[in-house]
Amino acid sequence: MPNEDLLITERCGSLGNSIKYTRQGQNGITRREVTQESVANSLLQTVAGFFREVLLPHGYPDSVSEDYFEYQLWDTVQAFCSTITGIFTTQAILKGVGVGSAEASALSATITWIMKDGTGMVGRIIFAWWKGSALDCNCKKWRLFADLLNDGAMILELCIPNFSHLSTEILCMSTAMKSVVGIAGSATRASITNHQAVKGNMAEISAKDGSQETLVNLVASFTGIFLINYFSDATTQWIVTFLLIILHLYSNYQAVTALIFKNLNNLRMTLVLKSYLVVNAVLGPERINKMESVLLGFGTDVEQFCGFRIILGRPLRGTLSLYNSDEVKSLANVYKNRKYLLVPDLKKRAIYVAFEQGESSQDVITAYYNAVLLGLATCMYNNVTLDIYSKRQLHHSTPITRLSTFMKSYHHSLDRLNNIPPQLLLTFNEFVDQELEMFFTALHVNGKLLFNNDAL
């Protein structure tokens, strides 16, 4: 219609069809859906649109984070494998507690089940108390760890038919492991959902994730019924389960490494600072997340390049005992205009950071970077060699080269380690202020990373 008078073009999301509203006659309006698809393709589009509405958040992909599809794809694969493996373990558990055996007692099976559930309840309470505060900041690590632990619990349950006399003990142990999986899995899933909800649609994303998981579990359940009948031999079932566990772990690893968090936790902050100190540039979220370790106990440690552990929010009662009252007063005077206090402990090679009440996210980042610079300066003051010195750009201005130049005029005897004197710390704070201004500029311009004081 070359001569049509177009009034408005409407499109629902980036994947929806375009609808054109044109003038008809003098004051009439005509609505026309724009499509060039064949009948077969149109039917396919209709079916795809139906499943998109049922399973994906409204406005997808604009209403979710850029890593949503890849994460959900691998999460679907791992859920499929986990459900089928769970069917094999359920069969093993029922055999182990005597289902189908004439010698089995209903009372003993009931007691076993009660003890199993009770162990799981206690395990959930203990784990939530012990590690609850670490689940947000190390979301990827705990997510992967939960699935590793879940597979370990399933392997134990598969062994029950061979050790039926220990079925109660094995079930209690596997249930305790699964209780950790339940807490860690649900808590980290909530953190991931919050990350994916870029339009304030966290509840909808959580609901649609539940729908996706239900559909996957339904399909996997029917698949599991077929497999458990087709592979009735115990050895074959072990082989199939082993292959499923490998695929389950691989898909979980791919899922967590697909996540691109834009907030700063301890490890991501360490990676940002390590690159910034050496090359004077902040890496983007994609690079930082790819460099981040997803295994508990692994990853770049801030002590490796600044010589000190940085400990935030820890009580100072043990550390302040190393100082006399005059030294504490001098230390407080050094940081009187800041919303935090840095207390070095040379013996433990740690810098403790205490905050004023009501600190902001930027205050936490500021204190962390200040503590790293203080650790580096203290090492330079005491002539302690660090690996990061050898990586500095000698002919390029970086925080390390600027700090090295600043500390050259200050010398200290080598008989023992000493803290930087308060008078020097006051001058050092002026240097830190300049560095902080440059760091925050680089962080905003180049890094596109968000501040999050809960993560550190």
UniProtKB/TrEMBL annotation:
Keywords noted in UniProt: Membrane, Transmembrane, Transmembrane helix
Top-level lineage group: Eukaryota
Residue stretches making up the Protein root UVB sensitive/RUS domain: 45-277
Similarity field: Belongs to the RUS1 family.
Domain Root UVB sensitive protein C-terminal: 282-417
Keyword Ribonucleoprotein belongs to the record: no
Protein name: UPF0420 protein C16orf58-like protein
Pfam families: UVB_sens_C, UVB_sens_prot
TM segment ranges: 215-232, 238-261
Subcellular localization: Membrane
Organism expressing this protein natively: Asbolus verrucosus
Keyword Transmembrane helix: yes
GO CC aspect terms: membrane
Taxonomic classification: Eukaryota, Metazoa, Ecdysozoa, Arthropoda, Hexapoda
